[in-house]
Amino acid sequence: MITSNTSDNPLSGSDCCSWDGVVCNSKGDVIELDLSGSSLTGVINSSSTLFKLVHLQMLNLSMNNFSESQIPSEIACLKQLRSLNLSNSGFNGQIPNKISHLRQLTSLDLSWNHLKLQSIGFESLSMNMTKLEILRLSGVDLSSSVSRFFANFSSLSYVELIDCQLQDEFTSEIFHLPKLKYLNMGNNSNLTGSLPEFFNTTLLKDLDLSSTGFTGTIPESISNLKNLEVLNLQGCYFSGRIPGSLSNLTQLTFLVLSSNSFTGLVPSLASLLKLTILDLGINHLEIRRNFDWINKLTKLNFLNLNYMNIHGQFLLCLANLTKLSTVTLLGNFISGHIPSSFMNLTQLTKVTLEGNQLQGQISSSFSNFKSLQLLNLVDNKLSGTVSIDSFLGLNNLETLLLDDNSLQFETTTNYTNGTLPKLKIISLASCNVKEFPVFLRYQKNMIAIDLDENEIEGLVPN
Predict the structure, then answer these.
(1) 38-83, pLDDT tens digit by residue?
(2) Parent domain of 81
(3) How many CB atoms lie within 10 A of CB 246?
(4) Most buried among 31, 253, 265, 314, by the most CB within 10 A?
C-alpha cells in the first residue's frame, strides 16, 4: 500500500480525493490520510510515496502491523503535519530525533508500540513542539529522565504516559500547565513525587497517578480543582487524612483512593452527587457509624469499602443506590440481617460481603438479581437451611461462595440440567453438606469446587 514512487505528485492520475480515508483541499492536495485499522503490513521504506505528500496535515496509521520496523526518519519531511497517530502499529526501536522537526504538531500519539525515547530526544520534542496539545506515549520506554522537560510544553491539554517505565521524581510543574485537562501517568511504579498545592483554579478534569510511587498527602487546596471529574490515586503511597475539602469537587464522577495508607475518619462526601465510582478500600480509614451520606450518592454503580472498620447495619444505607452494579465490603464489622431493601438493588452483578458479622438466613430474594455474576458471603454468621433453589434463575452467576458460616446446605433438588448455566466456581466448605450436591452433576463449565470440612457420604459421581 505504501510503496515507492518517483512522481512529484504520487497520487496523480487517480481521483484519490474520493477514496476512503483521504481528504483533499480545494487544490486537490492530500491534507488528511487515515489508514487506521487497514491491515497494513511490512515496512515503510524511506522512498515511500507517503513522504511526498508534503501538504499532509493529518496522518493516522494506527492499528496496523509494521512488522517491528522502526519509524522512518523521513516522516520529518511532512512538515505541515498537525496530527500524527502511529499507535498500536507494531513499530520498534528508537523514536527518530528528527520527529521533533514536526513543529506544527498539535497531536502526537505513538502509544502501545515497542518504542524507546531517550532524554535527548524528549528534550528536542519539548523545545520544538511548542504547539503540542495532545501527547500520548503510553507503553513507550521513557526510562531516561524526562520529567524536567515538561514545563516547556505550555500548550499541553492532554498527557497520557501509562506504563512508560518512568523513573525518579516527577516535576510538580506539570500540574500547573495552564491548559492541562487530562493527566494519566498510571502504572509507573518507579515514578515518585507528591501532589503540590493548588493555589489557583485549573482546567484539570482527569488526574490518574495510579500504581506509581507518589507519596505525601492530598492537600486541602485540591478543592481548587473545580473541574475535576476523575481522581485515581489507587496503589500509591499516599498517607494522612482525606481532606474534607474533597467534598467541594462536585464534578467528580470517579474517586479511587484504594490501596494507600490514608488514616482517620472518612469525611462526608454527600455533596459529590455525580459519583459513579467510589473506591476507598485497603487503607487505614474508618467510616464507623457516620455513613448515612452514602445513601445520597444515587448515581453510584461501583462501591468498594474493603477493610474500613465499618460497624452496624451498614447495608441499610444502600437502599437508594439502585444503580449499583458492584459492591464490595470485605473485612468489616457489618452486622444484622441482609435487609429486604438490599434485595431491591436488582442491577447488582458482583456482591462481596465476606468477613463481616451478618446474621440470619439467606433470602430466596437473591433470585431477583438476574445479572448477578459473583456472590461472596464467606465468613459471616449466616444460619439456617439454604438450597440451590434459592439461586435458580441466576443465569449469569459464575461464582458462588458460601463457606464458613453456620449454614445447612440442602443438596436434594429436582432441578438438573441448566440450573446455573454459567457457574464456574462454587465453595460450600463448612456448610454441613451431607451428600454430594446433585445439581453439580449437570454443570458444564465448572473449574473449581470446594466442599472441604463437610460430612459428605457416598460416592462422588464421575
Answers:
(1) 999 999 999 999 999 999 999 999 999 999 999 999 999 999 999 9
(2) 1-124
(3) 22
(4) 314
